[in-house]
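Sorry to interrupt, but I need a hand with the structure work. Could you write out one complete protein record for me, on any chain you like? Could you add the entry underneath, on a fresh line?
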Amino acid sequence: QVQLVESGGGLVQAGGSLRLSCVASGRTCSSRARAWHRQAPGKQRELVAAITSGGSTNYADSVKGRFTISRDNAKNTVYLQMNSLKPEDTAVYYCAVRRLGGVTTDYWGQGTQVTVSS
């Protein structure tokens, strides 16, 4: 089993920045892809960014150029640097660990709230 704990969420004004962190415990995740998803009220959960074990990344079109996903395998941690935040980025952000060699999610974090005020 893997336990994921997110941190770094909060309230920020539009144009501001936040850095989310997700620490995994229970087993190493260095060989698995990691991802961040988000879910706004009344909307479906959506993929924000993902990073493979080799460091390749992909992003939702809505966050390209503003968000950066990175990982530190020594710390079993993945990060999401969010710059130029917009009110539409307001959501609960969830950390995910993907199935080995796949794209489906094996483990979810509990989520951290990000609120961007206009």
